[in-house]
C-alpha cells in the first residue's frame, strides 16, 4: 500500500479557496498511490480562529466537493484532513473526512478533544462524541485529530473498533515538536498500528507550524518523515506487519479489562 502525506503550508497570505485548488491539484498528481492524507483545518487554518466563521462549511461543502472529485480523478482514497464543519443548527466542529477511490464519503469524525483551554476550539466548537474506525480495503482505518494524540483512551477505543491503521491530521506548533514525535510513536507502539500523521507547515494565527509529518510502523519505527516546509512524504506500507507484530509481541492479549476506575479527582 502506498501512502502520501501532503504536508501543506497553511499561511495567512493565501485564501482558503486558493489553497483548496492547490491541494486538489496535488491530490490529482498522486494517481498510483493508495491513500493520500492532508493536514488538520488546512483550509481555514487551525490557529486562525477569527477566520473560522467565514470558512465554515457543510459535509457537502466546497472542500468535500473538490476532494471527492480529486479522489475520483486520481483513483485514490483521500483522507481530506479536517474542515471547520457547520451543522444545520449552526454548531461548528473540527471534522475529518475520508473518501474512497470513487469519491464517496466513507467516514467522518468530529474531533472529540478540543484544544485551546479557554480559547479557540474549546470555546468556538462543539466536541464530537463518536469513535470512528472505517472498514477499508487496507483494514480498519481509525480517525483521530491532533490534540486527540494526548488522550490514549481514544486510541484504545479505535483499536477495539478494529483499527489497524490510524490517520491523524494535525496543525501542531513547532514549539512542541518533541511532544508530537513522542506521542505519534507512543500511540503506534501502544495500539500496534501504522500511524500516519499529516501535519501543517507554514505559519498562521501567529503560530509557526511544526511540519514533520510522519509514517510510523506498529513497532514504532519512523518509516518516513518530512522536514518543516511544504513537502509530500511517500511511503510503502505493508499492512501484514500489523498481524505479524501483534503475534510476535502479543501484548494486547495481556490487557486486563474491568479494572475498577478510581473516582475522578
Ligand atoms: N491543533 C491542535 O489540536 C493543537 C494541539 C497542541 O498544540 C498540543 O496538543 O500541544
Report on this model:
This protein is an alpha/beta fold. The chain has one domain: 4-Layer Sandwich (Nitrilase/N-carbamoyl-D-aminoacid amidohydrolase), CATH 3.60.110. A six-stranded mixed beta sheet has the order 5-4-3-2-1-14. It has a six-stranded mixed beta sheet with strand order 6-7-8-9-12-13, with helices on one face. Strand 10 and strand 11 form a beta hairpin. Helix 1 packs parallel to helix 3. The radius of gyration is 17 Å and the shape is globular. The termini are far apart. 47% of the residues are buried. The model has no long low-confidence stretch (mean pLDDT 97).
What is the helix content? 25-40%
Q: Radius of gyration, rounded?
A: 17 Å
Mean pLDDT: 97
- Enumerate how many helices there are, as a single number: 7
Would you spell out the secondary-structure blueprint of this structure?
Layout: E1 2-7, H1 16-28, E2 35-37, H2 52-55, H3 62-74, E3 77-86, E4 92-99, E5 105-110, H4 121-124, E6 133-136, E7 139-143, H5 152-160, E8 163-170, H6 177-191, E9 194-199, E10 203-204, E11 207-208, E12 214-216, E13 222-225, E14 231-236, H7 240-248
Parallel strand pairs: 1-2, 2-3, 7-8, 8-9
Antiparallel strand pairs: 1-14, 3-4, 4-5, 6-7, 9-12, 10-11, 12-13
Helix pairs in contact: 1-3
The ligand NC(=O)CCC(=O)C(=O)O binds at residues 40, 46, 115, 146-147, 150, 171-173, 176, 179.
